[in-house]
Amino acid sequence: MIVGLLCGAISVSATIHYVSPVGRDVIPGGTSWSSPWKTIQFAIDHSDPGDEVWVRIACVVIIKNNTYKIFHLQSSVCICTIGSQMKKEPKYNVPGLRAGIQISRLLCKSPKPLGLAELCAATDLSKHMVYRCLQTLLTEGMIIEVGDGPKYEPSLLSFHYNSKPVARMTITRAAQAPLYQLWEELNECCYLGVLNDNRILYLIHHASGRDIRSGGGRMGGRYLLHADGAGKILAANADKALQDRLIDEGFEKLTDKTIADRKSFLAEMDLVRKQGYAIDDEAYIKGIICFSAPVHDYSGKVAGAICCSVLTIHYTLEELEAKVGPRVLECAKRISLSMGWKG
Q1: pLDDT digits 0-9 by tens, 55-102
Q2: What is the structure's pLDDT at 36?
Q3: What pLDDT score was predicted for residue 321?
Q4: What are residue 275's DSSP bridge partners?
Q5: To 10 degrees, the CA torsion angle through 271, 272, 275, 281?
Q6: What pLDDT is recorded for position 335?
């Protein structure tokens, strides 16, 4: 009787979702009164415009009429028709942050600077909220004031930060196949790293396939520049300001072969730039030696570095340079050429 009455009130093409206090918010579910969902919010989150949510009145439901319509059919059941403008409440919400993102997005999309009134009209945010967000973005250097009004537009600082992940993704894609091939040929630990503040960040890391292998390094790990083979490449080709920061920070001595003073560090940087590669001679971990080479981008700048690390029980330093070194250099060249480097 109830089903017949309800079906007459809905479109035959609508998908029906069922909600009851005895239900469970799981997928699959919500397909009948015998397997209903528990909360109306879960039903809304998994509905499309035009769908209908049948709700037992026993549920405590607070519904805003300007969000979706309610048709009370009898005391036991009501239908909520999901409209095209249905707003799904996010699980977590920071209104100020969301407002700042909205404003930043609008300014980036707009071909011309926008003023306070224009931003208020485009976002439905209060003038007070928009003004506070603009002042915060101005203070952080993410936008600038231009013209009368005033008007606002994104600064190049915003582009600078947003472009960094793109650059890292590009080098990761370019290095994926060549580095994997190098790892297959050598069966030794091979990795790609990029500069991340005053550390090297490993974006790709292939562990050695030997039964006895080194335990150093992992993808996503950050390591000291002055002791890591690839880190030396990045430090040597960075600006003087970074090298000065490293000197001011001091050099942690990890083994008896780790660089520990300013003079040795600068001499090593000069050597790395001159020879075009770097060696880690048990400077980070006793018993592990590494050969590293730079990866260049289209502008010729060093965008990252690749490295192969081996155990001293398998290679001498001379064997590392003679047998592993040329392959690492060739792999780095392949990656660089795919990134637009002219050679």
Answers
A1: 765 433 334 433 434 443 344 445 554 444 444 456 677 888 989 999
A2: 85
A3: 94
A4: none
A5: 90
A6: 94
List the one residue out of 89, 90, 72 whose CA is nearest residue 81. 72
pLDDT of 104 higher than 80: yes
Joined together, the tokens standing for residue 243 give: 């090298």
Report which DSSP code applies to 253: -
Distance CA 91, CA 77 (A): 27
Residue 222 Ramachandran class (φ > 0 left, ψ -120 to 50 alpha, else beta): beta
Q: Are strands 189-196 and 302-311 parallel, antiparallel or unpaired?
A: antiparallel
Residue 5 vs residues 10, 70, 254: alpha-carbon distances, Å: 10, 15, 78
Q: Taking each helix axis as running N to C, give the angle between helix 127-139 and helix 95-109, from 0 to 180 degrees, rounded to the nearest 10.
A: 70
CA 52 to chain centre: 37
Residue 120's contacts (CB-CB under 8 Å, 6 or more residues apart) are 126, 127, 130
Domains of the chain: residue spans and CATH = 2-81 (3.30.1910), 95-154 (1.10.10.10), 164-338 (3.30.450.40)
Q: What is the pLDDT of residues 169-195, one digit of tens each?
A: 589 889 999 999 999 999 999 999 999
Decide if 43 contacts 53 (C-beta within 8 A).
yes
